[in-house]
Every structure is written in C-alpha cells, then in structure tokens.
Amino acid sequence: MEKSRLYEYIDSRKGEIIERGRIFFDCAELGFKEEKTMDMICTELDKMGVPYEKGIAMTGVKATIGKGNGYHIGFAADIDALPRKDGAGCIHSCGHSIQTAMGLTLLETLVKTGFIEEANGKVTVFFTPAEEFIDFAYRDEKIREGKLEFRSGKQNMIALGCFDDVDCILSAHANGDTETKFDIGSTLAGFMAKKTVFMGKSSHSGAAPHLGKNTLHGAMLCLQAVSFLKDQFAPEAGLKLNPVITKPGGDVNMIPAETIVETYIRANDNETLFEACRRFDACVEHSARMLELDHEIKTTAGYLPLRQSDGLNAVVKENMLAFCGEKDIVKDPVSGASGDVGDLGTLLPTVQFGFSGIEGRFHSDEFIIKDEENCYIDAAKVMVGTIFDLLTQPEKQVRWEGFSGKKEQYLAHLRQNQ
Ligand SMILES: [Zn+2]
Ligand SMILES: [Zn+2]
Questions:
Q1: Into which CATH architecture does domain 190-301 fall?
Q2: Could you report the per-residue pLDDT of 272-325, keeping only the tens digit for each?
Q3: In the prediction, which pLDDT does 248 show?
Q4: Alpha-carbon distance 219 to 306, whole Å?
Q5: The architecture CATH gives domain 3-188+305-416
Q6: Centre of ligand 2 from the C-alpha of residue 244, in Å
Q7: Omega of the bond prior to 248 within 30 degrees of 0, cis?
Q8: Which of 171, 200, 291, 416 is the most exposed place for a label (fewest CB within 10 A)?
C-alpha cells in the first residue's frame, strides 16, 4: 500500500474529523474526572470496531490494533482540560482535545484503509488522563482511597504496566507559534517540588528575643544561599528556582517559631534537576544548623525533563516536509513547560512534535483553535505517515534496552518523593 492512500482517506473524511475534534474540544473535564470524554472515546472506538480497555487509572483508555511480534508503537494522547479562569467550568486551554481527536483519526485511518491488517506490527493509542499537574486535593483523596498511586495519568499508567510491551512513544502537542507550521525536538523542563519547614522557638520580640529562635532568619539565610547557588549552573541547564515564604504571617511582637519556604525546582535535564535538589537541601540544612534551628524537607516528584529521540524525530521531520518547507519547522526549541511525557521519555524512545494553529494564550480562557486544518488534518497526517514509515521500514525503528530496570528505578524515585 502507498502512504498516499492514508492521506486520501483522511481527506475523504475531513469534515467528520474536524467535527469530531470540535465535539471533544467542547467536552472539557479535569484530570481523573474525564468520564464523559472516556465514554465518547469508547463510543468512537466501538464504531470503528477497535477493541479497547477502559477505566485504566480511573479514566484512561488503551486501544491496540495490529498483530505479530513486530515493532509496537505507542501513541500517547492527553485527554484532560483546565479550569476556566472565569469559574464557568473547564476549557481545553492546553489543546489536549486535539490529541484525543488525533488518536481517533489515526486508529480509524490505519484500520479503515486496511493498512494495519497488512502490517507486521502493532499500534496502541493510550488516551491518558490528568496531564496537567493540578487539583491535588481530589487526586490525593483518590490516592488515599487506593484508586490511584500517583498524581498524573502517565505516572499511574507506567506503574500499571501499560507501556511494558511498547517499543516507542509518539505524541504531539499544540504550540503557541503563529509563524510556522510545526516544531520538532522541543525540550520540556522537569520539576520537583520542595516544602521546607524551619522550626525554632517563640518569644517576646521586645522583652526577650534572645530566648527565642527566629526561624525567619534561617529562611533568609537559606534564600540568600539559594540565589547564589543559581549562579553555579550553566544557563543551558535551564535551572529555575524561585522560592517563596508561605509562612509566617504571625504577630509582630513575637519571634516567629516556624517559617515555611516552598519552591519548584525546574531544569532541562535529569542531572541538573537532581543535583539542584541535592544542593537546595544543603542550603536548607546548613542555614538551619548555623542558627541551631530544626528543619524538615518534603520533596514531591513532579515530571521529568523531556529528551526526544533523534532517530524517531528524523522520521517525523521527513513526514512534516511532505506538507511544508524547512522554514516552516522550528527545530529544537527550548521550552520552560513540563509534561508527564518527559517521564515516558526516560523509559522509551519518545517524540512529541508541535503543531501550530492556536490563537490566544495557553492555559487562558482566550484559547481558540484557529487553524483546524493544521491541528486536525495535517498534524494527523504527519503522525499517520510516521507510523507508516516505522512499520514498513524496519531500519527506521528505534528500540532501547533495559526497560524494566529503568522502570523500577523510576518508580522508586516517584515512591520516595511522594
Ligand atoms: Zn498545559
Ligand atoms: Zn498540555
């Protein structure tokens, strides 16, 4: 079969594909609450005759097509939305509904054209809940109830073994660009959250400050050290460390007995992220020790930085060039954003290309899908073309060794830093 047959199928269904995208855009639900979205996905899969498993990590869906022991491609599609800033429900202001629509488009195309029947290999679309790292009260309640282990969809799906027999991960995300068509090789920052408590002794601040132990002083020493620390990392490491004092307020006639400093630590690579965490802890410990204060540090794992697979991206890029010139593709942009696809990228060769077509700021109520043709049609063709190449040209397939060891290490990291 020629690749053009897949494009022709998408063109022949253009109206319905775009309409389906609009319907999913209008169905905006927060992470692990995507019940309607999950049911709509399953209804579409039923129509295509594609088998699936639903309710994975509460609201995730996994649909596999193809057969044999050949290359097994995973496509990860986020399905969750964000709260509207005006309080009126939710909105897909990160464009995840476009990924959901893309997952359905590629399954439909690969099945209906008969391509997947001919191919030696499999494609699994993972409709993954809760990519946005928000709404912790709800998620922590579900963790206590034993319905989830972690706060993000992909983290839970990794722990549940969903990706154990997959060779690579493909994904795509809307970008904020208005001048170009696609981006490729983007980084995503990783982050960890720190909550530090300095514990001292309260006392009358006029009559007997010397009898207290002022925790604000410890926190200030620590913040000073942290700001100097940032100087010791190269700019390309992308270290971002902006602590805030979240306690005390307190009364002005008392020596503050407890001060809390919280921060996210962000970086472009794992080495920097873990090194910065270690050094931050040292700043806290030593500041506390200088003033004989007690301290506690709680570390919470966020997402890991994304490093994409060059080999897979070479295939993606060839497929982009079928629809645009070199100048319409942004190469290797550095992004300060984070995503749980970064976690997958430490376990499996992974790509996440970007596509333009959005107007209005991301994560705002002004987010609009302006160029539906690029978001729903051309981006889907790039993905379908990439899958075609990977399944028909084995020399382009990228595989990594040692998945289970890496997964064990990864889960230990998450469990230690919950
Ligand atoms: Zn987002
Ligand atoms: Zn997003």
A1: 2-Layer Sandwich (3.30)
A2: 999 999 999 999 999 999 999 999 999 999 999 999 999 999 999 999 999 999
A3: 81
A4: 32
A5: 3-Layer(aba) Sandwich (3.40)
A6: 25
A7: yes
A8: 416
